[in-house]
Amino acid sequence: MARILHVDDLHGWREIVRRALPDHRVDVAGSSEEALDLLRGGAAYHLALVDLRVVPDREIVGAGLLGLLRSRYPETRAIAVAAVRRVPEVERLYATVIGRSALDTGLAELDGASLPFRMPKPDELPSVPDADVDATLDVSAYRAARLAALRAHRTQVALSDGSGRAGRTTAYAMSNGVAQPLLDVEEIVLLAGEPVDGSDDLFGGAA
Q1: Is 168 helix (H, G, I), strand (E, B) or coil?
Q2: How many CB atoms lie within 10 A of CB 100?
Q3: How far apart are CA 92 and CA 203, in angstroms?
Q4: Edge-to-edge strand order for the sheet containing 167-173?
Q5: How many Å apart are CA 100 and CA 187, to the nearest integer?
Q6: Closest-CA residue to 92 (of 189, 198, 200)
Q7: I want to staple 28 with a disulfide (CB 3.0 to 4.6 A). Which of 14, 22, 45, 130 is the partner?
């Protein structure tokens, strides 16, 4: 069961989404401020559905909330929702995800490591079935830059090295103190548009 946050100022849409996902826990918020209260109040959400046109309160609109999610709650996957037709200039829409096998491999490398974080409980970290992954990119060459980026956000992300079964390993954690592996792959799913030949050619054929 996934924990989902749905932010929409229309009560009817909140109820439709809640009823459409009976097998998951769906918390609803009618404003960005209500959403922030829910985010601060418990375990991390697996997914957030955010209406870009939510009525602003305290100068936080839907787009602003998405920015806060990215910076403060990166473990929560966010999807922007808006009642507009598909923009024809956008040929494909992608989202980054973590596949189940990649996550399991990363967690296995952390097993037994001396880290100041606790290991996650089963299914506590969000992931998707491997079959849902459309492209896998090797980002190992950018590991140093990614570590530098994590250190630059030390007020929001804790980073630690430790010795695990796979030797020297690196983990990071958000404010919940749950260990997450720093993976050397980035996995992509296609949300909209037509796929292209070559799973790693995300922009193939784009004008």
Answers
A1: strand
A2: 16
A3: 8
A4: 158-164, 167-173, 180-181
A5: 11
A6: 189
A7: 14
Q: Could you tell me if 71 and 118 lie in one domain?
A: no
H or E element, residue 39: helix 32-40
Token pair, residue 90, equals: 């956008």
DSSP for residue 24: S
Q: How far apart are CA 73 and CA 152, in angstroms?
A: 15
Question: Across the strands, what pairs with 192?
Answer: 93
Helices (H), 62-162: 62-72, 100-110, 143-152
To which residue do tokens 């070559």 refer? 198
* CATH number reported for the structural domain that contains residue 43 in this entry: 3.40.50.2300
CA distance 148 to 188: 23
Mean pLDDT by 10 residues, the chain (207 residues): 85 78 86 86 84 57 70 82 59 80 92 84 85 89 87 82 54 87 88 66 61
Global pTM reads 0.57
**76 plus 100 within the same structural domain:** no
